[in-house]
Amino acid sequence: MEFQNVTKPQYDLVAVPESGGAKVFNDMVHSYLDLVQPNKFPSEILQKAIKKSEYDPKEILTYEVGFLVAVAIGLVFIILMILVGLFFPCCRCCGNCGGKMYQKQTKRINCKRRFLYVFLFVITLIILAGNICAFFSNNKITIAVKNTFNYYNDTVYVLENYIDSVPKQIDFIVKKSNIPIDKANNSVHDIGPILGGQIQNVVGKVANTTLDSVENVVYVLNATVIYMTAVNDSFNALQVEQQAISQNISDVRERIGKTVDKCRPDCTFSSDGLTMDANFSSIPDFSEPMKTVKDFLNSGIESTIAKARKTLQDIPGTVTNQTRKTASDIQDELLNIKQKINEMGSRISIDDSLQTVKKYFNTSNEFVDKNQQNVQRYDYYRWIVGICLCCIVLLVVVCNLFGLFCGPCGHREKVDPTERSCLSNSGGNFFMAGTGFSFLFAWLLMLVVGVLFIVGGNSYTLVCKPWSNKQLFTFLDTQVNLSETLNISNVNISSIYSDCQKDYSLWKTLNLKDKFNLDEYLNISQYTSDVKSTIEKTKIDITNIKFLSDSQKEKARNASNSGINELNFTHISQEMKKNITKTNLKSFTASLRTFADSVTNASIKEELRREADDLDAIQSSINTKLQPEIVKLNTSITNLKQISANLSESMNKALASTDNAQVFMDTKIADIVKNETNNFLDALLKYFQSYVDWAKLMITQNVGQCGPVAASFNVAQTVLCNYIVDSLNAFWFSLGWCTMFLIPSIILSVKLAKYYRRMKSSDVFEDPNDHLEMTSTSQQYLIPRVTAKA
């Protein structure tokens, strides 16, 4: 009996983690955070913080030392950037720190300019790459926050459907109890053909074999009688033909002798050989064996066999008639079993635990619905701020790029620094503008980076990383008593997640064997004991089968000992091998005709010819009448010998078989009925055992396969950590990247700006081919004067 497996709902709940370049960038951020925070998960510190017990602040500071060092560096950066930003313009306004609009001309000035240009270009590209990552990460955070609610709704929908599917699966299993009950009901309804058929098959193996052997003996005896009658009839017919032919031959022989005597002594012809050679006047007497066989055949043996077969065929009907009340009682018991199984389904229900979980879902849904708009609005504000911060960095990048573009385009190497073009001077101004923006906003960027670094970094190290390596579940197990919440013993978050990852059933995941004794609920005896008792009380009486009566057995023995297989047909066989006449009639007739032709007396010749014709008629009679009877007699004797050769042995075996079968029927029929009744009961119980085994398998392995629960955890981890936290970390990392590279950008921009800005005073060129320009303080062209040596 086959049962359909429990239907497993199809769930489409997948959140794909980042891949490609985004994953590489996130891995780089993770490596940096792992370097900043190499300490293991602070479960003890968190436990004390949650319980609000006394804890040592040094523990927290020790754990966060990596973050504190990084924040300290950030603070130093902010302070120095503010101080430098304040002093640097003041110094330049006073003509210091490269503030004088004068550039000394050297031989390597072009090489220096190109060197600074290339390095600033590379630094600008690096800042631009970080800025692009910041733009991208900032947008990803908004997308992640928006999609988080969709993923949350999908996850809750899947989990609610999953929770609702569990009672449906239990109901499905309970309803499948109709299959064994219907099977058993049909078997009870057809108890006559089924149980009676089983009894009939067992009894029939012995009875039919015996009856077949008796029928075969009866068939052989009937055939023997037929062949004996045929032998007797053939012999009688052969005797009549033999007497007629013998008389005719004798008459012809006398006439030939008289005719030949008429012509003596002129002619001589001998007819002494014209006599019968074969003699069929005697045959063995088998009238007594035939009478014995006929007595047995006429004893009503065929009626006895037919009655025995009918008794065998009536067994199913007999069982049907004798078990009507039993069948009705069993069908009533089957209805009771159905009610008990339905009660079993309600007893192993875990609706109370599942409803507790659904209450948490309802509370969570209310909280999410209440705060969704606020979260999205605040995220929009965050997105605006992020765009502004990215635009600040982009402003510096644009200034640098304009400077890198305009400076070289308007610059001429042979042109005096005081006469540089407007385009070249604009390039230098752009460099200085970028430097100014860098000083103005670098501290702000670093401040934002520091705050986001603390939030995002700790989110990764305290939530995402331990979530990934399962340490978070271990910590939650110490804080949340899931066994008490679900009213189920020996369960925790770690075990549930591990089992659900393997898509185990709720029975195994929640250790429901400690709450429900499934063997007790599915104990087959509590359902079938009444059925078993009812069937065992049933009384079935099968009419005993009689194979042969004592009189028939006696007549059968007489027929077996009648000697029919010992009849001697040797004499007849020898006679049938002889010629019919001593001389060959054809040859004799031919000789007689030759002799007649030699006789001169016409009347004698005519008589001899007539006598020859009479011999031809006798030969024709032998061929057409006597010879066929001989063949027929020979065939009948052969058949009789063959069929009666083993007749005595066959009859003795049949008698022994009937005796054994009769003893079997007289002594074993009650045991057969009892055994087959037990087999019928076992067949009924197997229906229920098969159902119980299937129900155990479904409940322990298939009901509530909790793969969706693990998938929900995975989706939550992917959305929270991979989409939100990683995007947040990527954002501050990108901004920090850009901010740190503002330092070399400032230095290179300030240095490179002087190579493109228009100077207020000129320096001489060191090229000997270029003219020398005098300044107001130059002493080159003074008239030499004599001076006294000391």
Describe the structure.
The protein has 790 residues and is mainly α. It folds into two domains: 21-175 and 350-469 and 707-753, no CATH class; 189-330 and 544-682. It contains 26 helices and no strands. The protein has helices at residues 21-36, 43-51, 57-63, 65-93, 109-175, 178-189, 191-262, 287-297, 301-313, 315-322, 324-347, 351-410, 422-468, 471-479, 482-486, 493-501, 506-509, 518-521, 525-536, 550-560, 570-577, 585-598, 602-644, 647-702, 707-740, 742-753. Helix 7 (191-262) runs antiparallel to helix 23. The relative contact order is 0.17. The model is unreliable at 765-790 (pLDDT under 50).
Q: Order of helices and strands, N to C?
A: HHHHHHHHHHHHHHHHHHHHHHHHHH
Sheet bearing the most strands, described?
A: none
Average the pLDDT over all residues and give the rounded result: 79
Using only CA atoms, what is the Rg? 63 Å
Shape: elongated
Low-confidence stretches: 765-790
Helix run count: 26
Q: In which range does the helix fraction lie?
A: over 70%
| Structure summary, number of beta strands | 0
User: Helix/strand/pairing class, anyone?
Assistant: mainly alpha
Assembly state (oligomeric)? single chain
- Work out the strand percent: under 5%
Count of structural domains: 2
Instruction: Give the termini separation.
Output: 134 Å
Annotation keywords:
single chain; 790 residues; mainly alpha; 2 domains; 26 helices; elongated; disordered C terminus
